[in-house]
UniProtKB/TrEMBL annotation:
<dbReference type="Pfam" id="PF24453">
    <property type="entry name" value="DUF7569"/>
</dbReference>
<protein>
    <recommendedName>
        <fullName>Small CPxCG-related zinc finger protein</fullName>
    </recommendedName>
</protein>
<dbReference type="InterPro" id="IPR055991">
    <property type="entry name" value="DUF7569"/>
</dbReference>
Amino acid sequence: MSDPCDGCGRAVEDALARAVQLQVDGSTVDDQRLCPTCFADWITRYEEQMSPKQSSDDSTDSEIIVD
């Protein structure tokens, strides 16, 4: 059985499909069926967005005002 990839629309065999399901407090937020290429792209975006941002500029600390 082939179903389309939710990323590119190409047919994906079950053996090659990757299911991505994100849940918050038990409720499904996102559920996708992806081909290997779209899955690799999804992982790259996830890692980029979820990794801590490195900042060489400490200007954010100077913006904190404490009364």
